[in-house]
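hey so i finally got around to running the thing on that chain from the lab meeting. sorry it took forever, my laptop kept dying and i had to restart like 3 times. anyway pasting the input first so we r on the same page abt which one it is
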Amino acid sequence: MAANHATREKINWLLLESVLIVASILLAFWIDAWWDGRKDALEEKEILVGLEVEFTDLRERLDRWANMNRTGVKLIDRLLSESVKEMDLPELEFAFTHTIVANVLDQGGALDALLASGRLERITDRDLRARLVKWPDWLEDIHTNDLSAREVTIHVIAPFLAKYGFPGRTCDDEGSFFLACPAPGPVPPAYRELVEDPEFRATLIMRRAWLNVMANDHEMAREEADKILEILRSSLLQEGG
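ok and heres what got predicted. didnt touch it at all, straight out
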C-alpha cells in the first residue's frame, strides 16, 4: 500500500511538473506575442505620425497651387476682356506674372520611404494602404500636366512678354515671388500693344485652359489627401496618439 501511495504521488508530481512546464511555455509564447504586438503597434504609430505630417504639408501645398491657378484663370480672363484697358501698371504686371507661373509640387519623405522599404503592411487599415499605394499616381498626373504647361510658358509665353519689355524691372526683395514689383506709374505703350496682339491673346486662351486643368488636378488630389488625413487621424486616435 505504501508503495502504491508513493507511486501515485510521484505520478501526480510528474503531471504537475508537466502542467507547469506547458504553462510556462505558453506564458513565454504569450509574452513574446504580446511584445511583438506591442512593437508592431509602436512601429505602426510611428509610421502614421510621419504620414500625417507629410500629408498635412502636401494638402497645404495642393491648396496653395489650386488657388494660385484659379487666380491665374481670373487674371487671364481680365486680360482678355475689355476691362484690360482699365488696368494700371501694377495690375498688368501682376497678371503677366501669373501667365507664366510654373507649378512645383515635389514629393518625398515618409511615404516614399515606406513604399521603398516594403513596410506598408505594418499599416493595419486596408483602405488606407490602398489609398497610399495609389497616391504616387495622383502626383504623377499632376507632374505630367505641369511639365506640359511649363513648356508652353517657357517657350511661348515668356518670349512674348520679353519681346514687349516684361519684366522691365526686378523686385528688390530677392525672395519675392513676383518678377516685377512696380510703383504706380504710366503703363508702357508696349504693354498695351501686347494685350491687343491676336497671337498673344490666342496663347492666353490656351494657357487659361491649362490652368483650369491644373487647378482641377490639384483640387482632386487635395480631396484625396483630405480622405487620407481623415483615416490617418482616426487610426492615431485608436492607437492612443
